Amino acid sequence: MEDVLAYLELKNRYYEKFLNLTEKFLVGARQNRWEGLELFVDSRERILNIIRSFDFKIAQAFEAAKLDNQQIEFFRPQVKELMDRRDSLVSKIVSVDLDLMQHLEDVRSETIRDLKKTISVGQKIQSFEESESPEIRKQFKHTA
Predict the structure, then answer these.
(1) How far apart, in whole angstroms, are the C-alpha atoms of residue 123 and residue 137?
(2) Which residues, in sequence order, are CB contacts of 17 under 8 Å at separation 6+?
(3) How confident is the model at residue 127 (pLDDT cuts 50, 70, 90)?
(4) Fewer CB near the last or first residue (10 Å), C or N of the chain?
(5) Residue 45: its pLDDT value, please?
(6) Residues 89, 97: Cα–Cα separation, whole Å
(7) CB-CB neighbours of 45 under 10 Å
């Protein structure tokens, strides 16, 4: 059962790493720093794979422990504490991920507004050029 507890502790450490990574990226994103996006995504994926591998190891270790009811009751508080910690970390991760997704949506919306404004200005310039008589355009070209 010591292996189960050790794996649960390690799993929580990787949840902490996942949370810290996401929080740091969110701080950079809020400062409009996106240069580490690919590394961020890759790192998160690697951490998630490690967390998944612990699930398998925990199941194997628990099955191999062959505990009786008294032993299960003895270890229950430790397991509960580790699982409560995991739940807390997961809740924080979800919250930070939602903040990050909202920030990405805000940036996307702002980009779309800027593009629409650029297109509108371009259309106004184009309509001005189309409305000019050839004589005015010649004069403008010669004075420029």
Answers:
(1) 18
(2) 47
(3) low
(4) C
(5) 97
(6) 12
(7) 10
Amino acid (1-letter code) at residue 95: S
Enclosing H/E stretch for 131: helix 69-131
Contacts of 96 (CB under 8 A, 6+ apart): 19, 22, 23, 26
pTM of the model: 0.74
Mean pLDDT of 35-47: 94
Angstrom CA distances, 87 to 81, 82, 141, 142, stand at: 10, 9, 70, 73
The domains of the chain are located at: 2-143
User: pLDDT confidence of 134, banded at 50, 70, 90?
Assistant: low
DSSP type of residue 36: T
Tokens 């800027």, residue located:
114
